[in-house]
Design goal:
Keywords: Signal. The chain has 6 helices and no strands. It is mainly α.
């Protein structure tokens, strides 16, 4: 009884490793191609879009909850935009939520 189970496990394990390796390779190449064609803005947008959940927590808590993704996005926005340097954290968090 244990022999068929062991055989199935040994047979499916390499297939799952190959599938995840293939997915990572194809996703990586697609990401590289898109970032090369569109400049660095796609990576920049990702930083801001990843902060949406933290921004929602920040706005919902009245500025009490500050997540790491939100902090990174605020820093990123202020480095790139002069108007963002003058805006409050709450205003920028609301802008992130509006995206």
């Amino acid at each position: 009884m244990i022999r068929p189970i062991l055989f199935c496990a040994l047979f499916t394990l390499p297939m799952s490793v190959f599938a995840s390796s293939f997915a990572g390779t194809s996703a990586g190449s697609a990401t590289g191609a898109s970032s090369n064609s569109s400049g660095s803005s796609s990576g920049d947008d990702k930083v801001v879009l990843d902060a949406r959940e933290d921004a929602a927590g920040f706005v919902g808590s009245g500025g009490v909850i500050r997540g790491a993704y939100l902090e990174a996005a605020l820093l990123h926005l202020r480095e790139r935009d002069a108007a963002a340097r003058e805006a409050s954290d709450m205003a920028l968090a609301r802008k992130i939520l509006a995206l």
